[in-house]
């Protein structure tokens, strides 16, 4: 008689779906620690074993990272993002920068051709928040606002496949940016993104693509490029 995989209980599936929704909705951001097992048991009203199974399933899929003695942390926002994170976490930073540059340059060109007035207003709002975050000196706040801005540029391309691929790589890119920026925001590392928004607003695809391609990670720039 052939063996068959045991089916996970409907209750466990429901708990997995609820926890996944907390992650994908942003309620539990990447890098944050989720509630403890006893807290989840109380909040969900289910048995400890059900919670444990759900957390392990999401950890296996790459969304959560279980750290003994520390807690469980959000690693990625989707299963594919988790795979991307595990597959490329140890990659050469230059290769990560090249992929980011390629994707964002293509997206910026399309954004200049397809952007709506709503897209432009959102980019201008996010650009202002990015600058405010930089001025605050809060490195983590800057990383978050910068990542949100770049994702909005890609979304303005109105190419669902490109936007989805960038989103799945987003957690990896955010990790590299966080490491690259460090704990202190240095004036010589500031990069002006105003020209990119202006090019998208004007419908200038060539300039938008060139601007997006000119934003390498800070640690890869030569002194002469600082401040670009």
TrEMBL record:
InterPro entries named among the record's database cross-references: GntR_C, TF_FadR/GntR_C, Tscrpt_reg_HTH_GntR, WH-like_DNA-bd_sf, WH_DNA-bd_sf
SUPFAM superfamilies according to UniProt: GntR ligand-binding domain-like, Winged helix' DNA-binding domain
Keywords recorded for this protein, A-Z: DNA-binding, Transcription, Transcription regulation
UniProt xrefs under Pfam families: FCD, GntR
Statement: the UniProt record of this protein carries the keyword DNA-binding: yes
Signal peptide bounds: none
Xref: Gene3D superfamilies: GntR ligand-binding domain-like, Winged helix-like DNA-binding domain superfamily/Winged helix DNA-binding domain
Keyword DNA-binding: yes
Protein name: FadR/GntR family transcriptional regulator
Species of origin: Streptomyces solicathayae
Lineage, top ranks: Bacteria, Bacillati, Actinomycetota, Actinomycetes, Kitasatosporales
């Amino acid at each position: 008689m052939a063996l068959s995989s045991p089916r996970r209980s409907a209750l466990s599936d429901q708990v997995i779906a609820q926890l996944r929704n907390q992650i994908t909705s942003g309620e539990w951001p990447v890098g944050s620690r989720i509630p403890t097992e006893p807290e989840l048991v109380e909040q969900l009203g289910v048995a400890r074993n059900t919670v444990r199974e759900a957390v392990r399933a999401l950890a296996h899929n790459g969304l959560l990272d279980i750290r003994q003695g520390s807690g469980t942390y959000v690693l990625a926002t989707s299963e594919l993002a988790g795979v991307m994170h595990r597959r490329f976490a140890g990659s050469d930073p230059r290769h990560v920068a090249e992929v980011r540059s390629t994707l964002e340059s293509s997206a910026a060109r399309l954004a200049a051709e397809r952007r709506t007035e709503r897209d432009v207003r959102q980019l201008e709002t996010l650009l202002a928040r990015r600058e405010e975050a930089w001025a605050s000196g809060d490195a983590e706040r800057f990383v978050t606002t910068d990542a949100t801005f770049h994702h909005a540029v890609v979304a303005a391309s109105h190419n669902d496949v490109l936007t989805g691929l960038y989103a799945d790589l987003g957690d990896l890119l955010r990790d590299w940016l966080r490491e690259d920026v460090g704990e202190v925001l240095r004036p010589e590392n500031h990069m002006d993104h105003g020209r990119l928004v202006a090019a998208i607003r004007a419908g200038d695809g060539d300039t938008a693509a060139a601007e997006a391609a000119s934003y390498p990670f800070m640690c890869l720039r030569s002194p002469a490029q600082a401040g670009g």
